[in-house]
Design brief:
- The chain is of the alpha+beta class.
- It contains six helices and eleven strands.
- A hairpin with a 6-residue loop joins strand 3 (40-41) and strand 4.
- The strands form three sheets. Strands 1, 2, 5, 6 and 7 form a five-stranded mixed sheet that branches. It has a four-stranded mixed sheet with strand order 10-9-8-11, covered by helices on one side. Strands 3-4 form a two-stranded antiparallel ribbon.
Length: 225
């Protein structure tokens, strides 16, 4: 029961992960975990195996409690497939592949970054700002594909992927940003609008000055009503 409470507190969803030992150091907590053997699916050929090839300790950063971080040492297993004879580490929900901190830390960081800033998210979770930025870059942002009744498209000065300017698509009535386009090219805008459902759109505030400067044809449909 005590070990189950600790795994729940750490946010570990893997049922085959158990606690070996936990202790408090001067500046952090140390949790030693281990995995129980179970049937694994080979990621290469799809065969199922329970043969163990070896073990290793993996250091993982856990969530921070009050003012102290949690350092996790995980005794994990490496399996060997009985069919293709290739080795692989067991799959764990608590940590993504090639990562050094728990998935729950990443989730907490993204929540703080959404309502505050990347620096605040880094301070709360005990990671660097650059790591939070890398997590954010890998995150697939969902956008509203059904555009609202009134939209506005305008440029802002940024510095993403070598482009000096980007475009934001705004829901004017609800005062929120719907999407951010990587550049201000007309082709990018046309491609974006074709990928969205514009059936509900009645008013469209267009960046017509830029289109005029490029000598592009300006459709009356996209003018200010």
């Amino acid at each position: 029961m005590h070990h189950h409470f600790i795994t729940e507190l750490l946010g570990i969803k893997d049922s085959h992960v158990d606690v070996w030992d936990i202790r408090e150091e001067e500046s952090h907590f140390v949790a030693e975990l281990f995995t129980k053997p179970r049937m694994q699916k080979c990621p290469f050929c799809g065969g199922r195996t329970k043969r163990i090839h070896g073990y290793r300790w993996q250091s993982i950063q856990g969530p921070a409690f009050t003012t102290k971080e949690v350092h996790i040492s995980l005794w994990k297993r490496r399996y060997i497939c009985a069919f293709c004879h290739r080795t692989f580490y067991e799959h764990l929900q608590m940590i993504d592949r090639y990562q050094r901190c728990m998935a729950s830390v990443q989730t907490i960081a993204m929540k703080h970054a959404a309502v505050s800033s990347f620096r605040t998210a880094a301070l709360v979770t005990g990671v660097t700002v650059n790591r939070v930025l890398r997590w954010f870059d890998r995150k697939e942002l969902t956008s509203s594909k059904i555009l609202p009744r009134v939209i506005a498209i305008d440029e802002f000065k940024g510095d993403a992927d070598g482009e000096r300017f980007q475009l934001n698509v705004v829901d004017v009535e609800n005062r929120r940003i719907i999407d951010i386009l990587p550049n201000r090219k007309v082709e990018t805008i046309e491609k974006y609008l074709k990928s969205c459902d514009t059936g509900k759109v009645e008013m469209k505030w267009w960046w017509w000055i830029y289109l005029k400067r490029l000598n592009k044809p300006f459709e009356k449909h996209w003018a200010i009503p």
